Amino acid sequence: LYKIACKDFTIDLQTNEIEEKPPMQNVSYFKYYDVDYQTAINSKKIAKEFLEEVIEDENSMHNAILQTYYIAQVSAGVRAKTNFFISKSGVRTGKGLRHIALSGLFKKVDVEIDTLKNKGFKGLQAWAMFSGGEMALATEQGDIQGLGMERVLKIIATEKTHITRSIGQNQSLVNLTSVLCVDTNRTVALSDEMNGRKVLIQFK
Asked: What does the alpha-carbon distance between residue 35 and residue 111 come to, in Å, rounded to a whole number?
């Protein structure tokens, strides 16, 4: 349940160890990536160079590396979901390219936070479109501030389910399994409580 299998090695998300031996043939793993150990090590160097080129500071670099592993651990069920990530900068800084890379590792669902905070049927229908996945990506959002915005952020960041309703359907629950990752160029002004859940990645 907690291991990622690759061609000739496995990553244990529970013990945080890499085992340099092929995965067993008669076992189901959390994920399988079609990559060998040497290619993965070489790719790690390329990824590090890219992050050093686009990430603003040491704390943001730590948070960017943390983000990938946090999503993997939450998805596998090793860690409870308690935080969300905000990538912030001006335009054309490498944020989008990084999120494309992350969505190649994890099942991505797109989310419109502005629509989710609507009251009534429009908001319920928006929640119906947002279910499951491992990485919830919110791009081109408005200002991240206000009680309505914070309520939605907290639900996605911490809750397992949420009430929804589609056209012509009864109320039901959606599964909020994915970790929220916000890509924004706009103002981020949150309360102390939500700042405690926010993990900021500042781009140059």
From this structure: 30
Least confident of 57-61, 69-73, 102-106, 146-150: 146-150
Length of the chain: 204
Q: What are phi and psi of 151, to 5 degrees?
A: -60, -45
Strands 17-19 and 10-12, bridge-based pairing: antiparallel
Distance CA 76, CA 51 (A): 25
Q: Are 81 and 179 in contact (CB under 8 A)?
A: yes
**Which positions ≥6 away from 129 have C-beta within 8 Å?**
none
List, edge to edge, every strand of the sheet that includes 10-12: 17-19, 10-12, 3-5, 31-32
